[in-house]
Amino acid sequence: MKEIFIPGRAIIREIVQENKQIKTFRLELLDKTQSFTFRPGQFLMLSIPHCGEAAISISSPPTALPLIDLSIRKAGVLTSAIHRMHSGDEVGLRGPFGTAFPVGNFPGHDLLFIAGGIGLAPLKSVLDYCLFQQEVEDDTVQRITLLYGSRTVADIAFQKAIEKWKNQGVDCRLTVDVGDPDWSGSVGLVTELLHPDIITPQTISLVCGPPIMIRFVIAKLLDLGQSETAILTTLERHMKCGMGLCGHCHLDGKLVCVDGPVFTYAELKLMNIMEFS
Amino acid sequence: MTNSIGELQGADVLLVTGSNTTETHPQIARNILEGVDRGAKLIVIDPRKTELARQAHVHLALRPGTDIALVNGIMRSIIDENLADDLFISMRTEQYEKLRDYLFRLNLDEIAAITGIGLSTIRKAAKIYARSSNAVICYCLGVTQHTCGTDNVQAVANLAMLTGNIEKAYGGVDPLRGQNNVQGACDMAALPAVLPGYQGLDNIDARRRFQQVWNCDIPQTPGLSLTEMTHSGAEGDIRAMYIMGENPVLSDPHLKRVETTLKQLDFLAVSDIFLTETAALAHVVFPAASFAEKGGTITNSERRVQLCRKAIPPIGKCRADGHIIMELGRRLNCPGMDFTSNAEIMEEISLLTPIYGGMHYDRLEENWGLQWPCWNRDHPGTKFLHKHNFTRGKGQFTITRHREPAETVETKYPFTLVTGRGSYHHYHTATMTRNSRRLVREYPEALLEINEKDSRALQLQPGEPVEVHSRRGSVRVKTVVTDRVQPGTVFTSFHFWEVPINQLTVDAMDSRSKCPEFKVCSVNIKKVSHA
Amino acid sequence: MLDLNEMILPKDNLTPLLRKLAKDARLIAPIKNSYGDTLFTVIDDIDKAAIDLENQPQASLKPYLLPQQETLATYRNTEGGYIFAEADEEPESIYFGVRSCDLTAVLYTDLVFSRPVKDSSYFKRRNKSLLITIGCNHPFSNCFCEASNSGPYLEYGYDLQFIDLGDAYFVSAGRRKGLDLLEKWLYFFRAVTDSDREKRYQLQLEVRGKFTQNIQVSQVCQLLQDHEVDDSIWRKLSGRCYDCGGCAYVCPTCTCFSVDDAAIDENHGLRLRSWDACTSSGFTRMTGGHNPVDRRTDALKRRFLHKLKYDYAEHGKPSCTGCGRCVDICFGGVDITTFISLAAKGETV
Questions:
Q1: Is C292 in contact with A211 (Cβ distance < 8 A)?
Q2: Which of C58, C240, C279 to mutate to test the interface with B (most CBs of B within 10 A)?
Q3: Which end of chain A, C or N, has fewer beta carbons within 10 A?
C-alpha cells in the first residue's frame, strides 16, 4: 500500500505578487506518469520543507493544467516560508481533495461571485473555468458578476485577473472598507454592493471570504430572495489530512475536507456551525 | 493548607481569594466545584473575572491591592450582623477587642470607595461566609504578592477566627502552593530564616542537633531572601551564586536589576533541565534530570509527602539534583554527602525534622503518602491543622490597615498591570512547556488582557500589539479584548521571554515575607504606530 | 467431524502455546510491571513475563496500532529535490489478552481508517496483527461495555476469543487467521464438551449482573438524534475541562491525529503523525487566529456528540466502548459518563 501522506514533487514556475500579503505561486507537478486533474473549488495539501502541510484552494482553472495556481496570504510559518521561495524551488503537493462547485449545473444561469480578500482565490478557479467554457461552448453561463471587497485600496488583490475579466465582459464591482483620496470606487462593505437588480431568477451566488462576511452576505442574499440551494459557499477549516481521517475540520456531523469545502446554504443551514450561529 | 484538598468538597462556603484556581490548581478547583455541585456557596475575591469567578455566587471584583480594606469591610459587616463566633473568640483567640474597636471606627462607605465594590455586595458576601457552619478560605499569590502581603494573610486569618472557621475538617485557611514541590522546599528550609520543619534558628536544641548530624556550624542569623539576592546589584556583596531550577532572569521583578546582579558575579552556576535564559548567563551549567528520570518525594499543598519513582534512567549526561548536590558537596569537602539512596536521605530528614518524624519510605509506599505533621512511625499523619490549639497557643487577632500599593496610577501611567500565570498550558517561564509542540500550539504567545472600553479608547484592532511602559521598562505585546479584566486594569503572564513583563514590575516587596509586588504596578499603554 | 471453531485450551498449555506463538511473531500481552501497572507489553521472555489477565490494561491497543507518534515518511530537501520516502515495515504481531471493549474499538478504528480512503500506515500494522481476546468475567469498577454493546463477551470480530472456565479456556475462532492458528497448534487443545459449553453460558449470564455502573448509553444516543443538549450543560462541562487531552489519549476509539514535519537536520526530516484531541482549541484554530469552536462553551461537544450522536446515526451503535478509562483519567470530572448522566436527566431541549 502506498503511503498516503507522501506528496508529489512540484516546482514553482512563476510567482505573481497580488498585493502586499498575497502571492500566487504557479506550480507544476514533476511526475508526468501520474495523471492529475481537479475540479474548481477543490484544494491541495501543500508541503514546504520543514514546515509541514497546509490546505490551499486551487485558484486556477483545470483548463490551465499542467500549471496549478495557489494564491497564498502570508499568515503563519508555512505561508511565510513559501513567500520567501523563488521560481525553480520545489514544494510538495497532495490532492486534489474535497467537493467542487457544481459547474455542470451552471449553463443557462447567471453567476454572482461575491468575495472578500483572499476569498477570491477558490472562486477565481470557477470564474476562469466558466469564461473558458463561454469561449468554447454554446450552452453556457449567461451574465457573470463579481463583487469584491478589500480592506483598503492597497489590499486589492488579483488586479491583473480583474482587468482581464473586465475585458472579457465580467461585470466587476470593487469596494474597500476604508477609502483613500485616490480611490474613486465604492467604499463600504461588500454587502452594500448587493442591489436587488443584481439577482435574477437565474442567479447562482458563489460566496467566499472571512466568516463574518459570509454570514452577512448570505443574510442579504436571502433578503433579496435568493433561494437557499442557489447560494454556494466554500468553508475554510484547520486541516491535516484532506482525506476525512484526521478529524480537525469537523463541522457538526460532517468533515469539511470530504463533505465540503463547497456547500449550498441549504446544506449549511441544517447544521450547527459557528459561521451562522 | 490547614485542610486537606478533599475536605473542600465538604465545606458549606468556599471563599477563594487571589487564586485563579481553575488554571493554576485544576485539581483543587475540581474539589471546589464539586463542593458547589453539592450545594456549597462560592465567593470569589479577584480583580479579574476568572472562570471560577464566573461560577461564583458572589464575585467581589476589587481594585487590585485593596484586599485588606475589603476583608475589614467583610468583618465589620459580620459584627454588624451579630454573626461573629463569640464562643470561639473567647476560647481560642486573644486581642479581639482591639480589632473590634478598630473595625467599628471604619467608615464602610470609604471601604466601598477604596475597593470599588458596592456595600450591598460586601454585606452579602459577609452574611454568606459568616452564616455557614463550615467555611474554607483558599488564597494564593493574588493575596501574597503585594507589599502588604503579610497583612493580607493576617486579615484573612482574622476573618477565619472571627467566625470560628478554623481548626476543623471542613473549615480553615488554605494557601494553595504554586510549584509542584514548593511546599516540600519550604519544609526542607529552602528559606532564609529557618531550619527544616520550620525550626527557628534561635532554637538552641535544634541547632545543636543539626550541628551534630551535619558536622558544621549553623548560622545564627537569617540569610537573604530570593529577591534580596537577585536584586543585590553591583554594590551587593554576593560574589557567587548557584541557582537550581529557577529562571530569575525572567521570573523576578524589575529584570534590569536582576540582570545587573547576575552579570557582575564572579561565578554563577545553574542547574536546570533546559538551557534557560538564566543558565545562558552561567559560568557552569549542570544538566539536571527531569521528574521522570529521578526518584524522591514531592510534598503538595495539603502537606502530603508523596513518593515519586524513577520511570527511566537519566538521558545523556544529565543527573538527578540530589546527585549534583552531593558531587558538588564532596568536592567542597562537605561532610555527609554520601547517601546511597533516596530512602537514606529521608531517614535523615525524619531524624532531624519532627513534623516528618514518621515519614519513612516504606510507609510512603501506601495510601499516596502521609500528611505532616507525622511525628513518629505510629502516627497516621494529619488531615487538618490546629485541631485543639494553634501553633502559638491562642490565635492572635492583629489589626491590619489598608495601604496603597507601592505604585498607584497617575496621569503618566494610568493603567494597573497585574501579572500571573496565563494559562494551564504553560508553567512559569515556560522553559519546559514551550518544548512541547502541542502546548505551544494551544498557547503560542503572550497576550495582554484588556477591557473593551480601554481597547476602544486606544482605538485598537482585535489582537493589535501595543507597547506597555512602566517607570522601569517597556515591552511589546499582543492584546486580547476580554471582560476578564476591568477597565483600567490589564493583565498578562510572565511565560514568554519575548515579552519579559517583569522588566515592568516593581521590586518593592513585603517587609516581612520579602515577597515582591507582582500583582500591582502602574503602566501606560501605547498603540504601536504602523510603519 | 471436529468443530475447529471452538476448542478447549487447558490452562497448563497456555504458556507452552504462547512460547510457540512468540517464535513466529512479536507477542504482546498485558504485563504487570514493577510499579504494579498493567500495560500491553512486548514479551521478550515468556518465562519472565508476568502476564496479568486479572486487571484491565491501563492503555488499550491503540498505542500499538495507532502509535502516540509514528513516522509516516522521511524526506530530504537537497540539490536533488524535495523527496519523500516511505517509512519502515512493521513486524507480524500477536496480541493476547485483549478485552472485548478494546477489540470493539479496533473494529471501529478499522472503519474510520477505511473511509473514504484506506490509511496505509494504520493498515500496515493492522494487517499484520492477530488479536486474541479474553472475555471479561469480572467487570472493573468503571466499566459499562454491556451498556455500550461491546462486551463483556464478543460475538464476532476477534481472531480468537478466550473465555476463562477456571481450569481451562474456552477458545472460539472468529476469523480465518484465528482458525489457522488453532489448526497449526491443534495438539495443545482438546475438543469442547457439552459441560464446557454449559459452563460458558453460565458465566456469560452471571457476568451481566456484576456491572456496578448503570450508564444509559443507548437511551442518550437515541435522545441525541433529535434533541439538542442544553447550552448550560456544554458550558458547565467546558468550564471544567482542562484541555489535558487525557480522555482522547486513553480512549481506544479516539483516532483524531495531527501530522507535522520535524527537521532532523537542515536537509532531512520526518513526517510525523501524533495523537491529537478535539478538546484542544488548537485543534480547530486556523492560521490567523479564527476558531470555529469556542472552547469556553464547546470544548467537549465534538467529542461526546461524535461518539454518541454521529457515530450512532452512522453505525447504529456509539463509538464509546464503555472501557471506563476516561473516568479515571479526567481530573475535571467531566468524562463521558458525566455527560451521559446529565443528558439522560433530560436536560436537553
A1: yes
A2: C240
A3: C
Q: In this structure, what C-alpha cell is assigned to residue A218?
A: 448570505
Are residues A3 and C276, on separate chains, in Cβ contact within 8 Å? no
Facing C118 at nearest CB: one of A1, A91, A246: A1
Tell me which chains share at least 3 CB pairs under 8 Å with chain B.
C
Structural domain boundaries enclosing B263: 182-294+310-344
- Chains with 3+ CB–CB pairs under 8 A to C are A, B
Would you say residue B355 lies in a domain? Answer: no
- What residue spans define the domains of chain C? 6-66+89-208, 217-253+286-344
Domains in chain A, ordered, with CATH?
8-97 (2.40.30.10), 103-234 (3.40.50.80)
Query: Which chain B residue is nearest to residue C279, measuring alpha carbons?
Result: B442
Of B176, B192, B220, which residue is a domain's last?
A: B176
User: What's the complex ipTM?
Assistant: 0.92
Q: Tell me, what amino acid is at B88?
A: F
Instruction: Please state, in angstroms and rounded to a whole number, the distance separating the CA atoms of residues C28 and C40.
Output: 6
List the pLDDT tens digit at each of the 531 positions of chain B. 888 888 889 899 999 999 999 999 988 999 999 999 999 999 999 999 999 999 999 999 999 999 999 999 999 999 999 999 999 999 999 999 999 999 999 999 999 999 999 999 999 999 999 999 899 999 999 899 999 999 999 999 999 999 998 877 788 888 998 778 989 999 999 999 899 999 999 999 999 999 999 988 888 899 998 888 998 888 888 999 999 999 999 988 888 889 999 999 999 999 999 999 999 999 999 999 999 999 999 999 899 999 998 989 999 999 999 999 999 999 999 888 999 999 999 999 999 999 999 999 889 987 789 999 999 999 998 888 766 666 667 889 999 999 999 998 888 999 999 999 888 899 989 889 999 989 999 999 999 999 999 999 999 988 899 999 999 999 999 999 999 999 999 999 999 999 999 899 998 889 888 888 999 999 999 998 754
Q: Is residue B287 part of a domain?
A: yes
Closest CA to B502 of B526, B475, B483: B475
Closest CA relative to residue C106, chosen from C73, C87, C133: C133
On whether any CB of chain A is under 8 Å from the CB of C113, the answer is yes
What burial letters (b/e) apply to B483-510, b meaning 16+ CB within 10 Å? ebbbebbbbbbbbbbebbbbbbbbbbbb
How far apart are the C-alpha atoms of A124 and B308, rounded to whole Å?
A: 60
Closest-approach residue (CA) in chain C for B444:
C282
CATH number of the domain to which B272 belongs: 3.40.50.740
Q: Residue B470 maps to which CATH number? A: 2.40.40.20
Residue matched to cell numbers 490546629: B386
Q: Is residue B386 assigned to a domain? A: no
The grid coordinates of residue B318 equal 544529565
Q: Which of C239, C280, C281 sits opposite B51 (nearest CB)?
A: C239
Domains identified in chain B, total number: 3
Query: What is the DSSP-derived secondary structure letter of residue B517?
Result: -
Quote the Cα angle for C207-C211-C212, to 5°: 150
Peptide bond into C57 cis (omega under 30): no
